[in-house]
Specification:
The protein has about 400 residues and is an alpha/beta fold. The chain has two domains: about 140 residues, ATPase, nucleotide binding domain (Nucleotidyltransferase, domain 5); about 190 residues, Nucleotidyltransferase, domain 5, CATH 3.30.420.40. Helix content is about 40%, strand content about 20%. The strands form two sheets. Strands 5-4-3-2-1-6-8-7 form an eight-stranded mixed β-sheet, sandwiched between helices. The chain has a six-stranded mixed β-sheet with strand order 11-10-9-12-14-13, sandwiched between helices. The two termini are about 30 Å apart. The model has no long low-confidence stretch (mean pLDDT about 95). Bound molecules: adenosine-5'-diphosphate. Homodimer.
Length: about 400
């Protein structure tokens, strides 16, 4: 069987990232990215190459410069372009072949992700123009969580806000949670997607998820990615009355409060030092009180969220750590697990600290449910989902009704 090539594109508000992936492979064939788009400092770079300046380039200019770099790595034509799209609302419950209806749907969901969806659309439109003959697929961060039951996704607000205005919990990081849960099933010798998992995706953004047999049952992020866990610069859950309190007592307006909660809080706000876990671990080791507090709050709140999510499952087969912090910080894993003995979860300290960067492994003590560290690979998941969708559509076209 030939292993096909998929170009995965992640369009951000000021950046675009490309990854050429081969089906079934855990390593990218080639990666490149352009940053600071629409500014005089715009540039692109790729591993092993020096940074090239592209003053005032937009998404299409950047893609125009990056696509020729792929040529040296193509042993066959590209079979699909897979685009990461942040918000698919309730409309998109899985990957979709991009056409006018899907473009309109992504645009219609932009009020729910005002920074991300328009940026994703810029990447999609640029790729459609430059690669018009290759099928383009949208893979949504929210789609995996569309299996949540209403008692998990509804807020206790008047019905009209949901029915008319779409105010509900959506959840994000779906591609990552889905990927690591699948890997957990494989690593523990289960069939394809079987298992009841708690998963913690801990990067700059952080979310937890309860997954049963490949379906998201509940997750910590909500209408927006601000809800839930403590993150790098995001507060996660706060009293919903905080907005009113800050407006009344400090006279702060909405943009000021949004900046506080999204950019100045989380690990950065608590520590007064940094949003970067590596830096905080070093500072903690040198006795920095803010760093110590930030890490403690981060781990305690994570444990509380995981314990809460367990009620969405009939049992817990295991807990998965992923994302830059989950994969690399033995301290975060150990402190979080120190709060979860009530669930029978016990870490083996030696296995926890011996795990090498980039490696998947099991770190539970004897008798504990599985505790897994699994490097996430959202691009691989996007590539595989894009190909599965194309294969399904071919089959449907070939099978008479
Ligand atoms: P993003 O959400 O931007 O993809 P990542 O998944 O790369 O982010 O995670 C970034 C976080 O991972 C940062 O807080 C970083 O400090 C942390 N991290 C990376 N390596 C380590 C390490 N060895 N020890 C502790 N934290 C780490």
């Amino acid at each position: 069987m030939t292993h096909r090539l998929v170009l995965v594109i992640n369009g951000g508000s000021s950046s675009i990232k490309l990854a050429l992936r081969k089906q079934g492979s855990s390593k990218p064939v080639f990666e490149a990215q352009a940053e600071r788009l629409n500014t005089p400092q715009a540039s692109y770079s790729f591993p092993g190459g020096s940074e090239c300046s592209l003053p005032d380039a937009n998404h299409q200019d950047a893609l125009n410069a990056l696509l020729p770099l792929l040529d040296a790595h193509l042993d066959q034509p590209i079979s699909a372009v897979g685009h990461r799209v942040v918000h698919g609302g309730e409309q998109f419950t899985g990957p979709r072949l991009i056409n006018d209806e899907v473009l309109a749907g992504i645009e219609a969901n932009a009020p729910l992700a005002p920074l991300h969806n328009p940026a994703n659309l810029s990447g999609i439109r640029a790729a459609m123009k430059l690669l018009p003959d290759i099928p383009q697929v949208a893979v949504f961060d929210t789609a995996f969580h569309q299996s949540m039951p209403p008692h998990a996704f509804r807020y206790a607000l008047p019905d009209e806000l949901y029915a008319v205005h779409g105010v509900r919990r959506y959840g994000f990081h779906g591609t990552s949670h889905q990927y690591v849960a699948h890997q957990a099933s494989l690593l523990t010798g289960r069939a394809e997607t079987a298992g009841a998992w708690l998963s913690a995706h801990l990067g700059n953004g952080c979310s937890s998820c309860a997954i049963l047999d490949g379906k998201s049952m509940d997750t910590s992020m909500g209408l927006t990615p601000l809800e839930g866990l403590v993150m790098g610069t995001r507060s996660g859950d706060v009293d919903p009355n905080l907005h009113a309190h800050l407006a009344r007592t400090l006279g702060w307006d909405l943009p000021r409060i949004e900046r506080l909660l999204n950019r100045e809080s989380g690990l950065l706000g608590l520590s007064g030092l940094s949003n970067d876990m590596r830096e905080l671990e070093q500072a903690r080791a040198q006795g920095h009180g803010g760093a110590q507090l930030a890490i403690e709050v981060f781990c305690y709140r994570l444990a509380r969220s995981l314990a809460g999510l367990a009620v969405a499952l009939p049992r817990v087969d295991g807990l998965i750590f992923t994302g830059g912090i989950g994969e690399n910080s033995a301290l975060t894993r150990a402190l979080t697990l120190s709060h979860l003995a009530v669930m029978g979860l016990h870490v083996d300290p030696d296995r926890n600290s011996a795990l090498k960067r980039g490696e998947a492994g099991r770190i539970e003590a004897t008798g504990s449910p599985a505790i897994l560290v699994i490097p996430t690979d959202e691009e691989r998941q996007i590539a595989e989902e894009s190909l599965t969708l194309l294969d399904r559509q071919h089959l449907e076209m070939e099978t008479p009704a």
